[in-house]
Q: What sequence folds into this?
């Protein structure tokens, strides 16, 4: 498949948040401010891209030759968890300024189903290494995009009159639904 | 009991949204996912209840993830063997139970001094609450989105026959396919959540739990 079209597919037309529901929890929980949404998105992008590379190598050079592919879920989640831990230690020691900015979001990435979901989708679609990298990079940028768009809409939502029962999560979900309608008509 | 209604994992505490949205376009998929979550929660509750006293706090998350991952993998293998249709319908969402906030969140919420029986009870009722919420969303989405209620379809490889109801007679309005699409999932869940909150506040309860 053409790499550019694969990127567009992962980034926009099959956006992981809007068509596969991955990463809805952090989307609801963290995107109150545009700036923190952006930091969180960048952190997720880095972790997803690197962990998909490592998972790909482990899957095709360790799990497949030794015929233990049923271990893939456990292996991938361990890769993600340890990568998050390592990133946290590196950032904490080398870039304390950056750590202050998105330090609190780092441990949360482990439980972000977007990271694991992208890796699993990439493996089940049988992408090669380059395609896998493009796909995971595009998907996580798509997550960043939705996170950012949604955070900016939410800033406006906070200033408008909303029925008491719909305040907070319900109106956020309906908003995402409307964004999803717009995105699903891209094709 | 309060984990079923007052602290329903989906409508009130907003945990585990990703499978709740993904598998609810079909009633059968929804209740099977609900059962899977109950099984995983219960089994991991059994183990977590035993070892929670000896696990140091800073490695809690990886240890629990591996425990949950083990049970999810076992469940995946069983489904792939006996109900392959359902397994492929779930695609990645069964594996994603590993990082599901509801399973992990419940395991992490136990304190060291909690009793073993309470741990198992809470795991079970959280799972039931989650399953019921999934069924409710699925019924609404399937009836409006495809005008059917699927009770047994992929499971027919085990039971032998299919049970699928048509709800309304053919008309120009009814299957509104938007509701079967991802966008409909977000909107239905949002409206349901708002309704639940409206009912709770109308009862005059200031029992906003979080």
A:
């Amino acid at each position: 498949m053409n790499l550019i079209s694969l990127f567009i597919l992962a980034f926009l037309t099959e956006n992981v948040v809007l068509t596969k529901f991955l990463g809805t929890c952090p989307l609801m929980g963290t995107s109150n401010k545009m700036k923190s949404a952006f930091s969180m998105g960048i952190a997720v992008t880095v972790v997803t891209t690197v962990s998909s590379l490592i998972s790909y190598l482990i899957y095709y050079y360790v799990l497949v030759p030794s015929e233990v592919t049923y271990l893939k879920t456990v292996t991938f989640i361990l890769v993600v968890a340890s990568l998050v831990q390592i990133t946290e230690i590196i950032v904490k020691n080398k870039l304390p300024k950056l750590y202050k900015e998105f330090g609190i979001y780092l441990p949360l990435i482990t439980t972000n189903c977007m990271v694991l979901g992208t890796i699993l989708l990439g493996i089940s679609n049988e992408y090669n290494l380059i395609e896998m990298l493009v796909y995971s990079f595009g998907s996580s940028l798509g997550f960043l995009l939705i996170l950012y768009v949604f955070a900016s809409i939410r800033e406006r939502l906070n200033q408008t009159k909303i029925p008491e029962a719909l305040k907070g999560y319900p109106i956020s979900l309906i908003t995402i639904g409307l964004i999803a309608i717009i995105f699903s008509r891209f094709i | 009991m309060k984990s079923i209604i007052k602290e329903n994992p989906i409508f009130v505490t907003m945990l585990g949204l990703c499978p709740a949205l993904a598998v609810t376009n079909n009633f059968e998929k929804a209740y099977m996912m609900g059962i899977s979550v109950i099984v995983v929660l219960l089994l991991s509750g059994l183990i977590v209840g035993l070892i929670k006293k000896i696990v140091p706090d800073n490695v809690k998350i990886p240890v629990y993830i591996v425990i949950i991952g083990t049970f999810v993998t076992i469940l995946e293998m069983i489904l792939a063997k006996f109900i392959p249709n359902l397994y492929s319908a779930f695609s990645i969402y069964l594996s994603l139970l590993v990082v599901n906030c509801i399973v992990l969140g419940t395991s992490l919420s136990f304190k060291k001094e909690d009793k073993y029986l309470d741990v198992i009870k809470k795991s079970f009722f959280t799972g039931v609450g989650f399953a019921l919420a999934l069924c409710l969303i699925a019924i609404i989405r399937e009836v409006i989105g495809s005008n059917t209620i699927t009770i047994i379809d992929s499971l027919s490889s085990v039971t032998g026959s299919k049970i699928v109801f048509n709800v309304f007679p053919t008309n120009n309005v009814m299957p509104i396919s938007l509701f079967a699409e991802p966008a409909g999932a977000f909107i239905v869940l949002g409206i349901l959540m708002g309704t639940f909150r409206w009912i709770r506040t109308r009862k005059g309860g200031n029992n906003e739990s979080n």
The radius of gyration of chain A is 17 Å. The mean pLDDT of chain A is 85. The first helix of chain A runs from residue 3 to 13.
